[in-house]
Structures are given as C-alpha cells and as structure tokens.
C-alpha cells in the first residue's frame, strides 16, 4: 500500500473509534448517522465508516492543556469537606478498630488522607509522564502504609476496603462536580475521571497489599500467644 493509500484509508474510522473521539455512546452516533447529522458510509460487510475529518470538526476547539484542578477549584480542603459531609450523613456504625484509635492515630490518618489527595491532584495535573508516575508511586506508598496500619489495628480486609471506598467516592464525585460546573468539554471530563478512577484502582491494590503484609505478623503473634492445648488422651 502506498503512502497516499494509507492516508486515505486512515481518513475513515469505525463506529467505536468515532464514538470515542466524540465522547458519546455508540448508539447516539448511530442515531446521528441515521438522521444525516454525520457523514457515514456502510461497507459491503455492513460496517459503518466515518470520516475522521468530519468527526473532528464536530468537536469544540480544544485547549492545549486542561486547566489545572487547583484553578478549577479542586483542593485537598474541598475534598476533605466533601468527605466529612458524606461521613456525617452516613448511618454506618463505626467499626471496632476505628473506635479503638487514639486521637493521635486519628490525626495521623487524616493527615495521610490529605497527603493522598494532594498527590492525586498533582498526578492528575502533571504535564510530563515521569512526573505523573512519581506522584502516583508516592501515593501508592501512602496507601500501602494505610493498609499495614489498619491491619495492625485489627481491621479485616473487608473493613479496610470499605474504609478506602469511603475515601474514594467523595474524591471522584467532587472531580465530576467540578468538571460540570467549570465547563470542561466532554473529552476533558472523560479523560480526567478515567485517569482518577484508574489511579484509585492502583491505590486500592497497594492498600490491599499493605494490609496483607500487616496482617501476617498480627496473625503470627496471635498464634504464638494462643495458649497451648493439652494433647488429647487416647482411650
């Protein structure tokens, strides 16, 4: 295939790629095509093909960079307020390991949460891949520390995951609210939330790994401290 032929071939894209470029569902793009709002042709095999140029022309003029989250109003303080607001409205009873925490432990946990939010925002705002990777690795280390510490306090893995999800949900919800209120276009908002969800997935894995490592020594101590059982007598 010549260079011209390759270029012409790349001008036509499938339904999946076209809908991804527009940030809309495939069904919506099918409807637009059926209504004549988007140029399309159907191959002999029944597949829709869209002009890449025509699809890109439907997009709003894009910015070179998404505005920083700090400029959009995201901050550790705002995320913390959302977290505490949601926690205050929750009827879930505190688990024993949380009840047993000292005030110093509570302060340390809140500070770690604030550091995690700061690192996540810096990760999402990073312009260069190495910088983003460094921020995410720092956040993973904090998440692993959290897992080890809550395991040492007696939490089960299920309780630790539930605690992490209570942190995760307000963070992602606040980003979505900011994206709506500050007028991010569809592509910017989708990319932002996808990156945030993927980062949270990695932090959850790090937290679970840390919990497993922290629970190991606790189980070993429990076995060591368990009173020895007398041998069963044989009849």
Can you give a write-up of this model?
By secondary structure, the protein is mainly alpha-helical. The chain has two domains: 8-57, Multidrug-efflux Transporter Regulator, Chain: A, Domain 2 (Orthogonal Bundle); 69-223, Globin-like (Orthogonal Bundle), CATH 1.10.490. Helices cover 70% and strands 4% of the residues. Strands 1-3-2 form a three-stranded antiparallel sheet. α6 packs across α10 and α9 runs parallel beside α11. It starts with a helix and ends in a 10-residue tail after the last helix. Residues 1-9 and 230-235 have low confidence and may be disordered.
Q: What's the short version?
A:
The protein has 235 residues and is mostly helical.
CATH architecture name of the largest domain:
Orthogonal Bundle
Instruction: Output the CATH class name of the largest domain.
Output: Mainly Alpha
- What CATH calls the topology of the largest domain is Globin-like
The gross shape turns out to be elongated
Helix content: 55-70%
Helix/strand order, N-terminal first:
HEHHEEHHHHHHHH
Number of strands: 3
Number of helices: 11
Q: Residue ranges: pLDDT <50 for 5 or more in a row?
A: 1-9, 230-235
Descriptive terms for the model:
235 residues, mainly alpha, Multidrug-efflux Transporter Regulator, Chain: A, Domain 2, Globin-like, 2 domains, 3-stranded antiparallel beta sheet, 11 helices, 3 strands, elongated, disordered N terminus, disordered C terminus
């Amino acid at each position: 295939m010549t260079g011209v032929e390759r270029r012409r071939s790349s001008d036509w894209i499938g339904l999946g790629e076209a809908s991804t470029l527009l940030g809309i569902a495939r069904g919506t793009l099918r409807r637009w095509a059926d209504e004549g709002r988007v140029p399309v042709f159907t191959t002999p095999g029944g597949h829709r093909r869209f002009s890449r140029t025509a699809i890109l022309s439907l997009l709003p003029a894009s910015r070179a960079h998404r505005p920083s989250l700090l400029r959009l109003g995201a901050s550790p303080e705002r995320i913390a307020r959302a977290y505490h607001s949601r926690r205050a409205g929750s009827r879930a009873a505190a688990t024993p390991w949380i009840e047993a925490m000292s005030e110093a432990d509570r302060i340390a946990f809140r500070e770690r949460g604030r550091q995690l939010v700061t690192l996540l925002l810096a990760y999402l705002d990073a312009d260069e891949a190495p910088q983003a990777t460094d921020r995410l690795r720092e956040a993973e280390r904090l998440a692993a520390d959290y897992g080890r510490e809550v395991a040492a306090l007696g939490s089960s893995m299920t309780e630790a995951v539930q605690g992490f999800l209570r942190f995760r949900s307000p963070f992602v919800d606040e980003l979505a609210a900011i994206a709506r209120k500050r007028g991010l276009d569809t592509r910017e908002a989708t990319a932002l939330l996808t990156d945030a969800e993927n980062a949270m997935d990695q932090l959850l894995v790090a937290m679970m790994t840390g919990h497993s490592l922290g629970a190991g020594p606790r189980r070993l101590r429990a076995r060591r401290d368990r009173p020895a059982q007398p041998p069963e007598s044989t009849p």
